[in-house]
Amino acid sequence: MPDISYPGVYIEEVSVPHSIAGVATSVAAFVGSTPSGPIDQPTRLTSFVEFERAFDAASATTPLGVGVRLFFLNGGEAAVVVRTTGSPAPTAPDATGIYALEAEDFNLLCLPELGADGPPTDPAETAAALAAASRLCEARRAILIVDPLPSWHSAADVVSGPAGLATVTAGVRRANAAVYFPRLAAAGGGAPQELAPSGAVAGIIARSDLTRGVWRAPAGQDATIAGAGGLATTLSQGEARSLNRLGVNTLRTFHGAGTVVWGARTLDGADATTSEWKYLPVRRMALFIEESLSRGLAWAVFEPNDEVLWATIRNSVGWFLYALFKQGAFQGVTPSDAFFVKCDRDSTTQQEIDAGIVNIVVGIAPLKPAEFVILQIRLMAGSA
Fewer CB within 10 A of the end CB, N or C, for the chain? Predict the structure, then answer.
């Protein structure tokens, strides 16, 4: 095994470490209404053709259908779709809308109806829906992709007014959400039509994960948006920079590159904040590691809570992180520069040991920023 020791902790050699597999990172969930199809029943899809079969071809032109189409068109490979007849995010968990996803695995959540053309919506209702969706994402280690509201026609609309960003995201779990502006213009002729960009953004995130890794920013000149006729609003460089400083990711059109995603921050990414979850790839990589470890160490519940278990956990987690290090996920020339794992009597008290609790402290040095980000995972052991 490579030398992945670090100050105060040494990963002992054990005969066969329990292998930890990385979980999926870019399964996108879509919730909204369609003319037909199963109601409040999660439907897993691997193509837009499957969407049309499950929800009828007439559903293709709904905001939900457009979002799913843009997802697959931009590189998405796996989606979960829920057709709802009410609000996509009910105020109380009742197995409808987003809460139909509680037993499903997903990493990205899109509610394209909130960013679609239609009758004006109450900003308070939109805020409540986004807050509920972000709470679900926080619980499920997922990211909510927030669409621009139909009333956001300019950078000024985003930052001010009764339906501005601060109002509609007041209750959002900001580390688990990312907002994108402006909306997309529909491709083709005819009357102007504006589209919610969340499906396209989710597809680009999936494409970036596949080709570059979850630790890379799904943005830049390679993050070209397909299936749209441009942008509904053109931003100047100054406007885009100002929005980015507020934690808003912009969509831009550049000569020779087309329409691209130009920003990779969470809603916690405003320059005025000091959140360690400022950058979307850092937050998503942390969620990926937490979920992978939680699932990959589930066997610990059947083991005695002692030094042997802790050494095995350190070894298993160390191998998992070392594989990510070799793929370029972390800063640092050596593994000890890039990550550490702590699981011993210093991380778990005697009272916790007696209760069957194992605490694992993981530190990683993401590509940006270079400082260590600390993750804490709590497991149950000893048949607790």
Answer: N
CA angle 21, 27, 29 (to 5 degrees): 145
Residue found under tokens 């996509």: 88
DSSP 349: -
The token pair that represents 99 in the structure block: 């809460």
Tens of pLDDT, residue by residue over 297-341, are: 999 999 999 999 999 999 999 999 999 999 999 999 999 999 999
Burial 266-288 (b: 16+ CB within 10 A, else e): bbbbbeeeebbbbbbbbbbbbbb
Nearest to 250 by CA among 192, 185, 183: 183
CB–CB of 326/211 below 8 Å? no
pTM value? 0.93
List the one residue out of 47, 114, 108 whose CA is nearest residue 84.
114
For each of the domains in the chain, give its residue range(s) and CATH number, in order of start.
28-282 (3.40.50.11780), 299-380 (3.30.360)
Rounded to a whole number of angstroms, the distance between the first and last alpha carbons of the chain is 31
Dist. CA 158–CA 162, nearest whole Å? 10
Q: Which residues contact 333 (CB under 8 A, 6 or more apart)?
A: none
For 115, which DSSP code? G
Element (H, E) at 69: helix 63-73
Q: Are 123 and 162 in contact (CB under 8 A)?
A: yes
